[in-house]
Amino acid sequence: MVSVTRSVFGELPSGAGTVEKFRLQSDLLGVDILSWGCTISALEVKDRQGRASDVVLGFAELEGYLQKQPYFGAVVGRVANRIAKGTFTVDGKEYKLAINNGPNSLHGGIRGFDKVLWTPQVLPNGVQFSRVSPDGEEGYPGELKVWVTYTLDGGELVINYRAQASQTTPVNLTNHSYFNLAGQGSPNIYDHEVTIEADAFLPVDETLIPTGMTSVQPGEDIP
Q1: Residue 78 is part of a domain; what is its CATH number?
Q2: Which domain of life is it from (predicted)?
């Protein structure tokens, strides 16, 4: 059984809109999601002893999300990660984007999907957010309709991304949560270990642009 509750989280400056918080709760976990940037502001899960802890980083008030911060919990796009030199070519036409990370364009540009108010729709077991990115927004071609859906299924949080473009355009959406599995407020994550089952990885250059694909041998540790 999943419950969904809705509340006001804060007001944007200059009357730009109301940011809402949606609390999804099951017997095994709870998650708070904001309509500002489709942001996961809290994810509470139980440890081996049954104690609940918030394992993602975020802010208690809206002001924290409006200041300069590293995309805590937000959906980033149109394109997550970096586009080298803020330039790409589609169908023979070159497009230039805002440069906001060294020599590159990062996470959709100056005002990416993390910095906009989304339209929510409550579902029986979650919430769906939608928005229309107009043609030319942050330099990207074509109108892009986007839906991001968060649902709970027992102990699983599912995020579904869907986009519909009016013309060919790059799209690469993801959630940008930062995790501390010991619980928010714990000193650091330096003793945490993560295992990723992968056949290859992408090395990057000094500006964090991939340089190619490198195969991984079974059991190999990547520094």
Answers
A1: 2.70.98.10
A2: Eukaryota
